[in-house]
Amino acid sequence: MLKLQTVAEVRSFLQPHRAAGRRIGLVPTMGALHEGHRSLIRAARAACDVVVVSIFVNPTQFGPNEDYAAYPRPLEDDLAACRAEGVDAAFCPPVEEMYSPQAATTVSVARLTEGLCGAHRPGHFTGVTTVVTKLFNIVQPNVAYFGQKDAQQAVVIRKMVHDLMFPIEIVTCPIVREADGLALSSRNVYLSPAERRQALSLSQALNWAREQVAAGERNVATLTEGMRQRITAAGPCVIDYVSIVDADELTPKQRVEGNCLIALAVRIGRTRLIDNIVVSV
Ligand code: PAF
Fold first, then answer.
1. pLDDT digits (tens, 9 = 90+) for 105-148
2. What is the distance between the alpha carbons of residues 270 and 39, in angstroms, rounded to a whole number?
3. Which amino acids are annotated catalytic?
4. Ligand 1 atom at shortest distance from the alpha carbon of 147
């Protein structure tokens, strides 16, 4: 596996593959790879001739009081995981390679970025869509893989790809969970053992909502209130949101109908966790 650090290196590595008509898959990541990322890499490996994983902790998607400095960066472990999954090239650029101090251009997606995480993390999605655009232009993949864990991100990127006519197929892979239900996240390493136990309330609240919907409950206020109660009963936390929205447009629902995304973001101690499920009625 090649470790590439510059845009020029990526382009010269991919040029003969593209010329030969090979299918190129990109898995964009911020490193600290876990089984969720590995499921994306496996999906890419199964469907593509050439697999590129980018490992870049993107500064522009972190707010000033967020965890950019603390974000885990176990690069050697990440490269070993990529090697083990049969990745062809890992692209690990330094910040200066991705961002020139003279840059004046960003990419933003309107409307879909206003609610959910967008309402609590101003500028976050512009950071994501700008860096993903750069990665798409550098790698020019045929297909790119994202996790359903970041449900809003996946919807926003699909919209960007459609609106800006990127000739790229977007694949969203299911959330990978621990045996007890906790959604895998690079940020789970921040949790103390007690916080880790408390964090189970998120998937438990979502499962409760799923059962209520299956039993016929359609009232969004009843469902979100029940989820909030279950999360706050588990211990001290700050709920950023517990929302039920249309799964494609991310618009708030009054009643559960069609494809609904049930999504939440909760801060436990210094760790902000997100989780979601999709229900179809
Ligand atoms: O999902 C992530 O890890 C990041 O938001 C992404 C897509 C790699 C962009 O930095």
1. 999 999 999 999 999 999 999 999 999 999 999 999 999 999 99
2. 27
3. 37
4. 1
